[in-house]
Design brief:
The complex is a heterotrimer of chains A (256), B (358) and C (294).
Chain A lengths: L7 E10 L2 E11 L4 E5 L6 H8 L7 E6 L2 E2 L7 H5 L1 E3 L12 H7 L9 H6 L2 H20 L15 H14 L4 E5 L7 H16 L4 E5 L3 H7 L2 E6 L2 E6 L1 H6 L1 H8 L2
Parallel strand pairs in A: 3-8, 3-9, 6-7, 7-8
Antiparallel strand pairs in A: 1-2, 1-4, 4-5, 9-10
Chain B lengths: L8 H4 L6 H20 L2 H26 L8 H16 L4 H25 L2 H21 L1 H4 L5 E2 L4 E2 L2 E2 L3 H23 L2 H11 L1 H6 L4 H27 L1 E2 L6 H14 L4 H22 L4 H4 L4 H16 L3 H15 L22
Chain C lengths: L3 H33 L6 H17 L5 H23 L8 H23 L14 E4 L2 E4 H23 L1 H11 L1 H6 L4 H23 L12 H12 L4 H21 L4 H16 L14
Antiparallel strand pairs in C: 1-2
Helix pairs in contact in C: 1-5, 1-8, 1-9, 1-10, 2-3, 2-4, 2-8, 3-8, 5-6, 6-8, 9-10, 9-11, 10-11
Classes of the chains: A alpha/beta (256), B mainly alpha (358), C mainly alpha (294).
Chain lengths: 256, 358, 294
Amino acid sequence: MTARDTLLELDQVALHFGGLAAISDLSMTVHPGEVLAVIGPNGAGKTSMLNLVTRVFDATRGRILFKGQDIAALPRARIAHLGIARTFQNIELFDAASVLDNLLLGRHRFGAGAWWQQVLRTSALTRAEEAHREKVEEIIEFLELSAWRNARVAGLPYGVRKIVELGRALCSEPDVLFLDEPASGLNPEETRDLAFWIDDIRSDLGITVVMIEHDMALVGAVADRVICMAQGRVLAQGTAAQVQAHPDVIAAYLGT
Amino acid sequence: MRYDYHTRYRHGFALLRHRSDWIAYGLLALVLLAIPLFASTYLVGELGYVLILCVASMGLMVLTGFTGQVSLGHASFVAIGAYAHAWLMAQGVPFALSMPLAGLIAAAAGLVVGIPAIRVSGLYLAMVTLAFAIVVEQIIGMWRGVTGGFMGMLVETPRLMGYSLGAPRVFYYVCLFVAALVLLALANLMRSGIGRAFTGVRDSEAAAFSLGIEVNRVKIYAFGLSAGITGLAGALMAHHIGYLTPDAFTLLLSLDLVLMVVIGGIGSLRGAILGAVLISLLPNAVSALKALLPESVARQSGLEIFVAGLVLALFVLFEPTGLNGRWLKLRLLVETFPLYRRDTFRRQKAYMKSERNR
Amino acid sequence: MNTGLEILAQVTVNGIAVGAIYALVAMGIVLIHKATEVLNFAHGDLLVLSAFSAWALIHHAGLPFWLVLPLVGLGIGALAYGLDAVVVRRIAGQPQFAGVMLTIALAFMIRGAVSMGFGTESQSYDTPWSGQTTDLLGVAVADLSLVIMGVVLLIAAGLWLFFGKTRLGVAMQAASQNQLAAHLNGVSVKRLNSLVWALAGVTAAIAGIFLAPLSLVDTSLWLITLKALAAIVLGGFGSLPGAVIGGLLIGLIEQYAGVYLPDGSRDIAPYVVLIVVLILRPRGILGEAHGRRV
């Protein structure tokens, strides 16, 4: 495997909270164009890994390389501008705003005009807003959200809110999209839709997907590659079947 | 019933989307412009004051309503704007230049207060702003060379190109002009990227960061913008009062501003204006009420503050979305009559959610 | 005759005496905040109401101080219980801001009612210790200040015992940490919250009755809420020891600034310190840092 095939690389990363090691020694690679699933028992450090990449936490040790650039010390708000998007385990939407505004906020990294243009609402700005809106409408169509376009997020059903969050991440046109337990709380039908969407996100939109997921049916259906984490390190990787059959993985899940 | 039928996206985010909006707001503008032609001088003066409070209330709304940062000390920015304006005019700076400068000075003060806002939030931030306001009030009292201390300071008559703007009927138009300008600017800003970033920071900092919003910078900017607009209101207020003393800008004014924002309805400019109108007319309503009450009750001086408290309590308990929320419900009721369902806006049962770990 | 050291000792004692009152008010506010997450801005006005009630009972009804103390204490406690049971309870589940607004509203109403009921003039009344001083290691201390310090110490110790040792106190602690869990374990959270309000009301009454003779019986006494809030924030929200430490600190800072710093700094020194402390330690002196999980 050559270096060109690496989009994101974690190199011997560690994360300690005081004396507690959430991630002890983690090295993993994300290849462009793949759907990578990260599985593992609770407390394995999956979300911590994601929080490291998106700079919620500072890594205690190690390098995080995105397209060859070390991002481990960048300001938290810079990450999105590099083309990394994410969703959250417990849905972090802008509750009091409409679905449309939530999705438009996903366009933030492409700029919204100088402040004086916004105050005067110049025609150039109106055109820029229309362009953003057009992109947003594409995502609305893609995720079949048009029924909810002007609804306030706070009142929406749980499953819809998860999809809105996915849509907001897609609106930022990322190179890599992290999904933190996208299927949790969804019913079987919604999960099946999600599987199709993830597949489309990779093949039609060309976005690399890394998803943290417990639902092995979903993982088996869409993931090209699976990494199993336990106790802050990689336990096994390979295809879904390979990982599931790995003796260490079975042991980790059985808690021995 | 009205349907949104737009053929271009820009029609969807226009400020006035329907013909009825144009008619309603046009009529409102005409009435506001015509008032000095027939109303008494006293009434025109009072309405000018209401407009000033509208500006201040919109200033606080930017911060508390759109960015979600509570300030219990906004009277300090009114004071800074008022004193800066009065001092600049005393130094010979013309009115038209001194007003925006006063706003900028207040904005600079706001940026400074906004810096702690990066580190503290919620009630801690409320306390920082409260403490700042108390400190500012005392400093104004002590800084005799510039502010005249507790003795006070005379504000010069505003002049524009040789004409005096001091008469209530003329000054009313100055207030109306500033209020309309601020409203338009903020309405544009709040429906553009900056406004969206504000609400993003308000509703979820984690998500705002993940979308590339510089949360800390947005918070400081919001403080600066809010303080600047409030300072502008202060500059107008200086002329309305005519003679500045520190006790015009106490904690009670800060609380009044918060009252306007909350009663008006968090997160809407219309709410800021409705709240300012209601709160500033409340004392008049109470004195009207006194005529109907028995002499022994009417003589007591605590009635105003009691009624203000009662109104606030009723809003917090029964209409947390404020006057703006009530307005939207009424409008929907009229538009969808007779199909309106009471349950449209029914709130779900809520459980206590700790904010200790925010 | 007065050496610098004697002045320092005198100022320190004064600071502790004033700080003790702040600490008492702060504890009352912390009690409610800990249990219900409502920051009670009306606390100072309960204090004003107590002071005026005590004055009325002493001057118009001619009751002795020793009878007035429990009467007003119980009365204000009952009122506070009612305030929570009838009004404040309704906003459970809404953002903290709603609680702040509602208690500000209650504060306005109580203040207005006091003005209407008792008039707006300042009043005063005597306590059994008024006008007497005791010589304490060469420092003259007003007996009333000593009594206040003793009372605050007693209340602090009482609260500590109550929350540590009694069944009701432990239940209150449990409820303050997780209301739903406490509810599921058979604790009547609603009644407990109201009881906490009652308890805080009693402390407000005691603070009011002892504070008023030091200054005057006046509606401006409510401003002590601000000092108490500063104390709470300094100490770190939600801890009773923090409230006591914060209260004493504010009292001392104020007195020292009044003597050693230029005119007028007395009134702003506590707030300047508050701002600086919050910038350096955003969770106060005793506060714990929490991150939000995502």
